[in-house]
Design goal:
Elements lengths: L5 E3 L48 E13 L3 E13 L8 E10 L4 E10 L6 E16 L9 E2 L17 E5 L2 E9 L12 E16 L4 H5 L7 E13 L10 E11 L8 E16 L2 E15 L7 E3 L3 E3 L19 E18 L2 E17 L14 E12 L3 E11 L2 E2 L5 E2 L2 E9 L4
Parallel strand pairs: 7-21
Antiparallel strand pairs: 1-2, 2-3, 3-4, 4-5, 5-6, 6-8, 6-9, 8-10, 9-10, 10-11, 11-12, 12-13, 13-14, 14-17, 15-16, 17-18, 18-19, 19-20, 20-23, 21-22
C-alpha cells in the first residue's frame, strides 16, 4: 500500500509519505496493511485545535485498497480525502471524500461525502453523504435478542448446497443522508465552535431485497422483504465539546433526536424513532485516553427488518455487530425495533512523529462492547431473559494531521448454536475490521 498525504499552502508544497491507512466502510470494509506502523520517532505535541490554523491550507491523502474483511472477503478499491483548513473554523472549513470499493463476494461500497463548516453563517454546518451499497452475501438470522443458528446449517458447504444459503440474502441499498447543524449561543473562544446545536437530517434510502429460496428470510417474510423507497426526517439537540473531533482527547458528545418516516407509495416503513447517545473522552495521561459510548434507540410502527440495524442520530451509523458496534459478531446478527449498545475503549499512543509539519500517531486500542435488542413482538424463549451480548478485542490506529484515522480492529464474541437435542452450545465469533475513523 502507498499513500500520498500532501500539505498545500498558497505557495503549494507536495511530498510523498508511504503507509497511511484508510477506508471507512460500513461493516468495516478494509484497507491494505498498516505499513506506517513501523514509523517511530520524536513528535510534535500541538494538535490542530490547540494550535489554530494560521493560514489557509489543504491536508489530503489517497489510499489504494487491497483488503480482506471477515464478512465480505477480499476486495479492491481506492479512497481520497481532503480537508480545507482556515483560521477561525474547527475542525476544518470543508472536507471532501470519495471512495470506490468492491469485493469478490459481491459487496460494493461506493460513496461521496461533503462536510462544510460555515455555510453562509458561521453557525451552520452541512454534511452530505451519498452512498451506493450492495451485498450479495448479507445475513439474516431472524428478529429477536436470542436468535440462534441451527446446527444443520452451520459449516462449510459446497456452492450448490442449499444449507449454505439458510442465513443469506442479497441487498442493494443506495441512500442519501443530509444533515444541517445550527450552532447555538456564542463561541467559547475565537477559533472554536459552539458546543450546543440543533440539527435536522434527511435520509432517503432505496432497498432491493432478494431472498434465497431456502433462506430463513424467505421463510419468515418479515416486513421489508419487498424492499422499496423509505424516507425519514430527523430533528434533535446535541452537545459537542470533543477536541479534536476525529480523535478526541477530551470532551463530550451527546445527542437526543426524534425521527419519522415520510409516507410514500413505494416504501413499507411507517415509523418513528427515539434516539439518544452519549460519548465521553478523558486523557488519563498525555499518551493514554479512555473513551466510552452509550447508544439507545426505540423504533415504533411499521419497521422494515433492514432498518433495525440503522441508528437514526445526527450521523448515519449502521450495525449491531460489525465494525462500529458490538465488534466481533456478524453485522446484523441480532436485530429488533429497540436496541442499546455500550462500549469502553482504552487508547494508548505508542508513537507520534512529525511528517511534513503534520502529526502522525500510532495507537493501540483495547475495547469491550456490549449490546442488547428487544421489542420483537414475539416470544423466542430465551429472549425473555434479555441476554447481553458482550465482545472484546484490540486494534491499531494511525492518526494523520489530527483529522484522518485508519483503524484495524480484531474483535471476539459468542454466536450460539442450537444443537439437534435443543441444547445451546457456544461458538467463538471473530471479526476483523480495517476501516476509517474511530469507532466513536
Amino acid at each position: 500500500m502507498v499513500v500520498a498525504p500532501r500539505s498545500m499552502t498558497p505557495s503549494f508544497r507536495a511530498r510523498l509519505l508511504g503507509g497511511l491507512p484508510g477506508a471507512g466502510l460500513r461493516r468495516g470494509a478494509p484497507i491494505a496493511g498498516l505499513v506506517a506502523a513501523a514509523l517511530v520517532g520524536a513528535a510534535s505535541t500541538a494538535t490542530a485545535e490547540d494550535d489554530p490554523t494560521p493560514v489557509m491550507r489543504y491536508d489530503w491523502f489517497v489510499v489504494p485498497m487491497l483488503a480482506y474483511n471477515s464478512d465480505n472477503g477480499v476486495g479492491f478499491g481506492a479512497r481520497v480525502e481532503v480537508a480545507r483548513r482556515e483560521p477561525g473554523y474547527q475542525p476544518f472549513r470543508a472536507a471532501y471524500m470519495a471512495q470506490g470499493y468492491a469485493s469478490l463476494r459481491s459487496y460494493h461500497h461506493h460513496m461521496l461525502r461533503y462536510d462544510r463548516v460555515g455555510l453562509g453563517s458561521d453557525r451552520l454546518r452541512l454534511t452530505v453523504n451519498g452512498v451506493y451499497r450492495q451485498w450479495g452475501n448479507d445475513g439474516y438470522w431472524g428478529i429477536g435478542n436470542a436468535t440462534t443458528r441451527e446446527r444443520q446449517y452451520v459449516g462449510d458447504f459446497d456452492d450448490d448446497d442449499p444449507r449454505g444459503e439458510r442465513y443469506k440474502y442479497s441487498l442493494v441499498q443506495p441512500f442519501l443522508h443530509v444533515t444541517l447543524r445550527v450552532g447555538l449561543g456564542s463561541r467559547p473562544a475565537a477559533g472554536t465552535r459552539r458546543p450546543w446545536a440543533i440539527f435536522t437530517s434527511f435520509n432517503g434510502k432505496w432497498s432491493d431485497v432478494s431472498a434465497h429460496q431456502d433462506s430463513l428470510l424467505a421463510e419468515e417474510q418479515p416486513l421489508g422483504v419487498e424492499g422499496g423507497l423509505d424516507l425519514l426526517v430527523t430533528a434533535g439537540l446535541l452537545y459537542d465539546s470533543r477536541r479534536p473531533e476525529a480523535d478526541p482527547q477530551r470532551g463530550i458528545f451527546a445527542e437526543v433526536s426524534l425521527s419519522g418516516s415520510i409516507p410514500n407509495s413505494s416504501g413499507s416503513a411507517a415509523l418513528f424513532a427515539l434516539h439518544g447517545a452519549a460519548r465521553a473522552y478523558h486523557a488519563l495521561l498525555p499518551w493514554m485516553v479512555v473513551a466510552g459510548r452509550v447508544m439507545v434507540e426505540a423504533m415504533f410502527g411499521r419497521v422494515p427488518f433492514y432498518e433495525m440495524v440503522h441508528w437514526h442520530g445526527s450521523v448515519p451509523i449502521a450495525g449491531f455487530g460489525g465494525f462500529d458496534a458490538v465488534r466481533g459478531v456478524r453485522f446484523g446478527r441480532w436485530r429488533a425495533p429497540h436496541r442499546a449498545v455500550a462500549s469502553v475503549e482504552l487508547r494508548l499512543r505508542l508513537a507520534r512523529i512529525t511528517v511534513f509539519r503534520r502529526s502522525l500517531a500510532l495507537q493501540l486500542g483495547l475495547f469491550t462492547d456490549a449490546g442488547i435488542v428487544w421489542g420483537a413482538g414475539e416470544d423466542r424463549g430465551a429472549e425473555a431473559q434479555f441476554p447481553l451480548h458482550v465482545t472484546g478485542g484490540a486494534g491499531l490506529r494511525l492518526v494523520f494531521a489530527e483529522t484522518f484515522v485508519g483503524r484495524f480492529d480484531t474483535g471476539f464474541g459468542n454466536d450460539p448454536i442450537r444443537e439437534a437435542s435443543g441444547e445451546l452450545s457456544d461458538a467463538l465469533s471473530l471479526g476483523i475490521y480495517l476501516t476509517f475513523g474511530q469507532a466513536f
